[in-house]
Amino acid sequence: MKSSLILNPIAxxxxxxxxxxxxxxxxxxxxxxxxxxxLASFSLRQTxxxxxxxxxxxxxxQLFTRDDVFDYIDGGGEIYLAYDFRFVFVREYVRDGAPSIxxxxxxxxxxxxxxxxxxxxxDGDAVDLGQGAIYGAGLLRFWKDKIFVRIMADQETPExxxxxxGFGTKIAGAIPGEGEEPGLINFxxxxxxxxxxxxxxxxxxxxxxxxxxxxxxxxxxxPETQVAMARYEREGSQLRVLVVEYPSVERAVDAQGRFAxxxxxxxxxxGRKVPPKKLEDGKFAGVVRSGRYLIIVTEAGKKSxxxxxxxxxxxxxxxxxx
Length: 322
Prior knowledge:
Blueprint: H1 2-31, H2 35-41, H3 43-47, E1 51-52, E2 55-57, E3 62-65, H4 77-81, E4 85-94, E5 101-108, H5 111-119, E6 125-126, E7 132-136, E8 139-144, E9 147-153, H6 158-174, E10 199-201, H7 204-210, E11 226-234, E12 237-245, H8 249-262, E13 277-278, E14 284-290, E15 293-300, H9 303-320
């Protein structure tokens, strides 16, 4: 009897914990997106035909959310998670003796992030589709409004290319509106800009994918920050520029100090300008703050080029203030 009196509380606690776990699981499950409902209501799915030029739908349509995107994109999901995407719809087309064709339609939370994902890879030739499109080696990529699309033939043939482009035209035509590009890119001067180098993103993961700055997050990038990055060529000299928008002046000042001390190896005092510095590779780098914005320049062949780009961007930023 004495033993059972000792065990009963433990048993009761176990039953309680199981009940709590079941309730918690039920709550989480109720908050998870219903994929069947999303598939049923996703209008762009209905735009795609069941067959095109002999290519027919293969396996069942699939849908992946932020919770299980790695089940589909093993090793590359971080890039999409770095933007605010909701889900990706996937359909495969197959034809005997021909390359398979996969259609991916990403539903983003904003047109700015649809544009950002599109800028992640600029390989290919520009085509007139959506709000921006690139095609190369069987892969078509474009964005429009809050949608980013990838359509890929696993081997390029004239017939496969025609089908890929046809799918892209149908999808783009079914998206009724157009979205805004990130306002941040408007602060970048057009003179000397290498258009294919333009990138828009938020976090360190994206920065590292394009340009390795340091082994730590010295710019304090986060989902709350916005970054426009590009390369410029001026009078035979090249440079790289990043414009970062922070949610507060305090965050911008902190990042300015980290960059000055950790990258430029210069003592930082808030409120004082950080002078440009010539690094060991002979190139110039510098950082300028304008309110909540940082202008970061690296790889400048000449100090005058660094000063030119920072002055132009600072002027654009000042002109945007009410």
